[in-house]
Design goal:
- This protein has six helices and two strands; from the N terminus they run αααββααα.
- It is mainly alpha-helical.
- The chain has a two-stranded antiparallel sheet with strand order 1-2.
- A hairpin with a 4-residue loop joins strand 1 and strand 2.
- The model has no long low-confidence stretch (mean pLDDT 82).
Length: 126
Amino acid sequence: MAMAIVVKGMQALSKKLNDTSRIKKPQMDFLSRVAIDIRRKSAENSPVDMGNLKNSWAFKIDAMKREATVGTPLGYARPLEFSTTKQPRGVGIIPFFRPAIDVVSRDMGRYVNVMKQEIEKGYQKK
């Protein structure tokens, strides 16, 4: 063969790409950042009478499913968010959860870029 090129390193590349432990931490960090921001924004937007709703927002990360859940256990949160009628004390619809999700959704590119950079760093290491 007068001219040829040999591409080497596919085994090493395949080994790195198949090592999912390199992406687990960036994925969990991504989920945590998104969940923390949704929780924080929901609390910031929550109506305050006694502060129970504002202080009740929480999140949990399920590493096995690779998902985050953000919410509140308080039953009156849903009617405040979605009701079309006047609530007790003359309070109408008070959206707090949907605006939090909207803000985080608009910033999703930033969250993804941070995760991408963390994954790239993990694969650059030997």
